[in-house]
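Hey, can you fold this one?
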Amino acid sequence: MAESTDERDQLIADLLEEAHGLRMKLEDFSQYTEAKVAEFVQARKTLTDERDQAVQQKSLAVNDLDVLRRRQDELHLQLVEMNKKMRELEAQVEQLTRQRDRARERVRALESSWAYRLYSRVRHPFGRRNTTEL
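Sure. Predicted structure:
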């Protein structure tokens, strides 16, 4: 019986030692798991912050793009209006240029006429006087 008691005590001691070893492995695994979970939580927080920041930047970019498109449309309308005004002004300039050219032709025709030359001779029979001499 003494032998069986010693064997039993040895078996209990071995089992306790094995249980202690398993508890230590479980503790190590638990610490490892906690560390990995903490890393995961930190990585998730970082990625969530980056995602939120990217979403905010995208929102700002979309707003900026909308403002830019509205401004582009306004500038296009202004350009169309200015082109219309420019064409109107060009037409007015052409009309005034034609009027000027017609008036010049009438003056040339008048100055080259026999009656005008006769009138000029009668009015200034001795040529034009210099008004500064008087």
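The mean pLDDT is 90. Let me know if you want another pass with a different chain boundary.
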